[in-house]
Amino acid sequence: MTWNPLALPNAVGKTIAVTGANAGIGYFASEQFASAGAHVILACRDPERAEAAISAIRRRVPGASVEAMPIDVSDRGSVARAAASLVEREGLDVLLLNAGIVHAPRARATDAVGNELVLSTNVIGHFQLTALAMPVLERTPGARVVSLGSLATLLARFPLDDLQQEESYDSWHAYARSKIAVQAFGFELARRLRAAGSDVSSLVAHPGYSTSGRTPGIRGVNQPSHAKRFVDNLQAAWTQGKDRGALTAVRAALDPDAVSGQFYGPRAVTKGAPVASWATPTTRSPRVGARLWSLLEEYSGQRFEIG
Length: 307
Ligand SMILES: NC(=O)c1ccc[n+]([C@@H]2O[C@H](COP(=O)([O-])OP(=O)(O)OC[C@H]3O[C@@H](n4cnc5c(N)ncnc54)[C@H](OP(=O)(O)O)[C@@H]3O)[C@@H](O)[C@H]2O)c1
Prior knowledge:
Strand order of the largest sheet: 3-2-1-4-5-6-9-10
CATH topology: Rossmann fold
Helix content: 40-55%
Number of domains: 1
Radius of gyration: 18 Å
Bound molecules: NADP nicotinamide-adenine-dinucleotide phosphate
Order of helices and strands: EHEHEHEHEHEEHEHHEEHH
Low-confidence stretches: none
C-alpha cells in the first residue's frame, strides 16, 4: 500500500500514548493521531504545558479525544505511576516513546538516582515505561511500541562500557549515544518480541532534521521568536518543520503494512515523506542490543522479560 500522510487510516477505537506530547514532534504526532480518530494520551511532565497542548488539539481537531497523563521520564517513581495508569486501561494500541532532551546540558547532570540525565530521559525512562506497560500492550491485538531514533546515530561511536560518561562528559556524545541506545533498544525489543511469539511490534522512526522555526506557530505549543524563524529558514533546503518531522513516527504507528523491526525516515534523509530507511549496523546488532538490555535493566532497576 502506498502511504499518504494526508489520508491516515481510520484510528477510531485505538488508544495511543505519546511521551513528551506538549511540544515539537510529540505534539504534532498527537494531533495527527487525534485527527485520525484515535484517543490520545498526552504524557507530559508539566501540567500547564500539557493543558495548552490539549487546548490546541481541541481547537485544531474538532471532536478530538485527548487527555493528559503526568510523567517525567527521568523520574523512576513518576514512570512507574504513569505505567500503572496505562496498565489499568482496557487497551493500548501504540506507545510512542518520543520525549527527549535534544540540547544536552553542557555539564554532566544526573537524575535523582545518579544516572546521566540525557541517557535517563531519552532511554532509561522509556525502557522502564515499556517494561511496565507490557501487560496492557500484550492484551491489545496488534499493539506497537515506536521509538524515536536520529540521524545522530550515524555520527558517533557507542562505547558500551561508558554509556554514563563518568570519565569525561561531552554534550554531543551524550545526545548521540542516547539516540544510538534508543534505536538499539527498539530493534532488540523487536527481536525479543518475535522470539517470544508476541503479537506486539516494535518499530523505530527518525524525523530527519526538524526545527521549530520551520514549524507552524501554535499558541502555547510552538512560538519561536522572529530571530529563530529567520535563522531556521536559512536552513530550509535541508530542514523541515516538526509537523512534518512527526510523519515517520505516525507512519510507524498506523501503517497497516508496517512490520516489527522496521525503520522509517524522511525520503530525502533530513526531510520529506516517510519511507522505509536504513539503520546503522551498531543499532541493528543483536550483540549490542543484548548487552544494552542488561545495562538498561541495571540502570533502571527494572527487569524486563518478555513471554
Ligand atoms: N527535531 C529533530 O530534528 C529531531 C531529530 C532526531 C531525533 N529527534 C527526536 O525526536 C524527539 C522529539 O524531539 P523534538 O525536536 O520534538 O524536541 P522538543 O521540541 O524539544 O520536545 C521534546 C519533548 O520532550 C519533553 N521532555 C523532555 N524531557 C522530559 C522528561 N524528563 N519527561 C517528560 N517529557 C520530557 C519536552 O517536554 P517539556 O516541554 O516539558 O520540556 C517536550 O515535550 C526526541 O526524542 C528527539 O531526540 C528529533
